[in-house]
Structure to design on (83 residues):
């Protein structure tokens, strides 16, 4: 069986990430609005890229001991992975 997902728009990217974080037990917003916009832009709305980029952002944030992921962390993660 095969299914091709369509790209998400900016609002859907934000909702998608927030939903996934809530499922994982997040109690507070982890990504700033500008970070979510940067992920939407860099991923072009493709769910697999969103997942991978957001995961890398969380790893960078943990390494830097950040409470929130901002646009700078998204940029670092995207540049490191050529997005």
């Amino acid at each position: 069986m095969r299914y091709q997902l369509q790209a998400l728009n900016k609002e859907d990217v934000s909702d998608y990430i927030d939903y996934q974080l809530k499922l994982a037990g997040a109690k507070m917003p982890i990504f700033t609005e500008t970070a979510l916009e940067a992920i939407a832009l860099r991923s072009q709305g493709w769910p697999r890229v969103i997942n991978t980029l957001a995961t890398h952002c969380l790893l960078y944030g943990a390494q830097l001991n950040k409470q929130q992921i901002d646009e700078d962390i998204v940029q670092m993660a995207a540049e490191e992975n050529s997005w």
In short: The mean pLDDT is 94.
